[in-house]
Structures are given as C-alpha cells and as structure tokens.
Design goal:
5-stranded antiparallel beta sheet, 44% helix
C-alpha cells in the first residue's frame, strides 16, 4: 500500500485510544510512525534498485522487524515525552502490524516470518493503492475532538470491505473453474486484483502444457483478455537456473512465473517472467540468465518495466563462483 494510506490508518488506530487528535499527542505519533516505519527499507535503494527489490517487504515487514521498529519508536517518544514507554511501544506495534497485514493482502506479499522463513505471504485481495480505504478513515480528521467512535466504525467497515472482496474473489475463482472445466489435481489457479480497477481481476491457470492468463470483471464475469503461454519441460538447464542465486531470488520474489529457454551462438539463455503485473504492452519484471556450453552462469540481467537494472554484488557472487569453478575444471589442483 502507499504511505498515505498506511499513515491515515495508523491515525485511525491511534484514535482508538479515545484521546483527542493532536500532533503533540505521543499516542498518535507512535501509531502513525509505527504504521509507516516498515517502509524504511527504502534505504536499500542506496545500493541500487535491485537491492531495494530484494529487501522490500522483507526484514522490516517481518514480525521480528516490527518489534525492533516499535522498540525504537517507543524509545524516541520516551526520550521526548517521558511517561510509560510500554504504552508507546504497544501503539507503535499496533500501527506497524497494520502495515504488514495490509501489505500481505496484495499480490506483492511480505516475508512475515523472516528470519525463520523467506516465503512471501500473499492475500491477493487489494491493489497497491485502494482509494476506498482512504475514504473510510478520512472522517477521523474531522472528528478530532472525539474520534474514537469514528475510528472503530472505520475499522469495522474495513474488515467488512475485505470480507466482501474475499467473496468476490471466491466467486471469480468458481466462475473460472467452471468456465475452463478445471480439476483440482493437475492445474493451479491464482486470482488477484488487476492494476486498473477495483472490480477487475487477473487470473492465471497453470495446466500441464500451458499457462493461461486473463482479465475479467467481478460482476460481468466476461473474460476481456486472454493469453496462452507454452510451458517448457523441466530440463537440466532450467533446473540449474532455478538453483542459482538469481534464480532463487526470482522464484522467491514471485509466486507465479513463466520460464523460457533457448540456445543462441553457443550460449544458453533462460528467461523468467513474473506474471503478476503487466501493462498494455509487457510484464513488469523479468530475469534473463546466460549460460555457456557447460551450463556455467556467465551473466544475469534483471528487467523492470523494460529497464535493465544494474546487477549488484549479490548476483555477481554467483557468476564469480561459476567462473572460478570453470577455471578449476581446466586446471585441477594436485
């Protein structure tokens, strides 16, 4: 979600305290700062855009990260206002947990259980920006003297809204299963919010031989766009590619991707395409890996909306290790 939405929901959480809304009230300050603090992972951009993509919604969005951020926020307000730091911690943590939970409800996901698991959790209910959530919490500003009742109402309506979106998604899933005569055993179906509308959904069907992509409306339930991608067999090259550092990163980055491989001028190419996000012309995220005849990784390119992102030391370490391995195979140590 965007920072403004997180901030205004944090304000609504602070309003649950029943205290008047004030910029000098540490309860509101802790809740709002907690609600926006997980996005401090933007500092990873100092090491490049690819470093940011690797770290975004990782440590800072995990329960461990939220606890550490909340402790830091509590310390700041305790030094400035005095009082009970536990109170500041609880309000900061309430704001912070709202951030991670909301981010977990879209299709980018969060690593909630880091460092115990690097798996991303996706709710596939919300877009990156949902104006309805802002509309629900805006009245808190206008009832600043007694905002508690309005905040409870806004939170209740938000839960109801999320539940209705869940029902809509389930209805779309049922329609697609019936439309394509899908069985549970040999196909995988994913339905997620499209980027261009509150009631529009994208879907992916992974069948044994193809991946079908489409877009449809929640109420019309007519498929407006459909694309079929042929699935490649799981060759030794593809297996090797998915075990490389870039391959592992990409497969953890997205829950639904397409793999393509080909040979050109004594080089083997493997391309991974993230199928979750696309505009009118292309998909947002891609990874291309280049291997030599011995299937040693020689280079890797990460693409974001057609732009090549500089490959950092995280990827280069894998390439360096492959080159070292190749040299050792030609010059074995005695």
């Amino acid at each position: 979600m965007d920072p403004f939405t997180h901030g205004i929901i944090g304000l609504g959480i602070g309003a649950l305290s029943g205290q008047p809304l004030s910029p000098y009230n540490p309860v509101y300050g802790a809740a709002v700062l907690g609600a926006v603090s997980p996005d401090l992972d933007i500092v990873a951009m100092l090491n490049g855009d690819l470093a940011y993509l690797r770290n975004h919604r990782g440590i800072s969005h995990s329960l461990v990260g939220l606890l550490l951020l909340s402790i830091g926020i509590a310390g700041i307000f305790f030094l400035d206002f005095g009082g009970n730091p536990l109170i500041y911690f609880l309000w900061a943590f309430a704001g912070a947990i709202s951030h991670s939970l909301l981010d977990s409800l879209n299709s980018y996901g969060t690593q909630l259980w880091w460092p115990f698991s690097k798996k991303r959790y996706y709710g596939n209910l919300l877009m990156f920006f949902d104006p309805f959530l802002i509309f629900l919490f805006l009245p808190v500003f206008f009832t600043y003297r007694k905002p508690q009742k309005v905040a409870f109402l806004a939170l209740g309506l938000m839960v109801l809204y999320l539940f209705l979106r869940l029902l809509l998604r389930i209805n779309v899933e049922r329609y697609i299963r019936k439309k394509f005569n899908l069985s549970q055993g040999n196909t995988r179906l994913a339905v997620l919010p499209a980027l261009n509308g509150l009631i529009t959904w994208d879907f992916f069907i992974e069948a044994p031989r193809e991946i079908i992509l489409g877009t449809l409306n929640s109420f019309g339930l007519g498929i407006r766009k459909k694309l079929s991608l042929k699935k490649n067999e799981s060759t030794p090259l593809i297996i090797k590619a998915l075990k490389t550092i870039p391959g592992k990163f990409f497969s953890q980055f997205t829950f639904f991707y397409h793999i393509n491989s080909w040979k050109e001028k004594n080089k083997h190419y493997v391309k991974l395409t993230d199928l979750r996000f696309q505009n009118k012309t292309d998909f947002f995220y891609k990874l291309t890996m280049i291997f030599n005849e011995q299937f040693h990784l020689e280079d890797a390119y990460f693409y974001r909306m057609g732009e090549v992102l500089p490959v950092d030391i995280f990827f280069r370490k894998e390439i360096f290790n492959e080159h070292l391995l190749e040299k050792q195979s030609y010059h074995p140590c005695s």
